[in-house]
From TrEMBL:
This protein's UniProt keywords: ATP-binding, Cytoplasm, Glutamine amidotransferase, Hydrolase, Ligase, Nucleotide-binding, Purine biosynthesis
Transmembrane segments: none
Gene (UniProt): purQ
Name recorded for this polypeptide: Phosphoribosylformylglycinamidine synthase subunit PurQ
Function: Part of the phosphoribosylformylglycinamidine synthase complex involved in the purines biosynthetic pathway. Catalyzes the ATP-dependent conversion of formylglycinamide ribonucleotide (FGAR) and glutamine to yield formylglycinamidine ribonucleotide (FGAM) and glutamate. The FGAM synthase complex is composed of three subunits. PurQ produces an ammonia molecule by converting glutamine to glutamate. PurL transfers the ammonia molecule to FGAR to form FGAM in an ATP-dependent manner.
Protein's organism: Actinomadura fulvescens
Coiled coil ranges: none
Length: 226
């Protein structure tokens, strides 16, 4: 059986596209490089929007990326069920593209945060978290300037009641996100946005743990069994 093909989109200013591609490869899938200016998803089975500062984060983090040509294709495909993971800047792009609700604002205190962060998995049923168990605790790096998740009270209540909060920060809230939210998903569970960087926790040699690899093995197993 051919390996699952997972696209990794590179925008001008992307920093972690190669790290994401490596994580995809370690999980047993074939990473496929996708370019922001293209209109072709190349028939991939899933897509990762990596971290960085797409288009320099001018206007707002992720605000310009939502108008990239490839996002037209991605929004439509996500609506049809294509699994999509947005990491850090990718999470911001998903919110700006209205694939996920809410917004990511400048961190509380206006400081760039870079640390190893403890998380708790709240939803282990999405396309990207099925290899975890609910309540499982992870250690994954976080590095962001605009990571403070915010939404109106009605949206926060809906996210909580529908089980769409994917992960929460433990010990401390590094950026002031409401309800300690580190990641959320859409109603179908195929689109996940995560502020921490699981692609930096896939090998014990370079990461604080290998806890992040499960996000990538989850989608590979989901695609193989589909």
């Amino acid at each position: 059986m051919d390996a699952a093909r997972v696209g990794v989109i590179t925008f001008p200013g992307s920093l972690d596209d190669r790290d994401a591609a490596r994580a995809v490869r370690l999980a047993g899938a074939e990473p496929v490089a996708l370019w922001h200016a293209d209109h072709d998803l190349q028939g991939v089975d899933a897509v990762v929007l990596p971290g960085g500062f797409s288009y320099g984060d001018y206007l707002r983090a992720g605000a310009i990326s939502r108008f990239a040509p490839i996002m037209t294709e991605l929004v439509a495909a996500a609506g049809d069920g294509l699994p999509v993971l947005g990491i850090c800047n990718g999470f911001q792009v998903l919110c700006e593209s209205h694939l996920l609700p809410g917004a990511l604002l400048p961190n509380a205190g206006l400081h760039f945060v870079c640390r190893d962060q403890r998380l708790r998995v709240e939803n282990a049923e999405t396309s990207w978290t099925s290899e975890y168990r609910e309540g499982q605790e992870l250690v994954v790096p976080i590095k962001n300037r605009d990571g403070r998740f915010t939404a109106d009270p009605a949206t926060l209540k809906e996210l909580e009641e529908s089980g769409r909060i994917v992960a929460r920060y433990l010990d401390l809230n590094p950026n002031g996100s409401l309800d300690d939210i580190a990641g959320i998903c859409n109603e179908a569970g195929n689109v996940v946005g995560l502020m921490p960087h699981p692609e930096h926790a896939v090998e014990s040699l370079t990461g604080p743990s290998t806890d992040g690899l499960g996000f990538f093995t989850s989608i590979v197993k989901r695609l193989v069994s589909a």
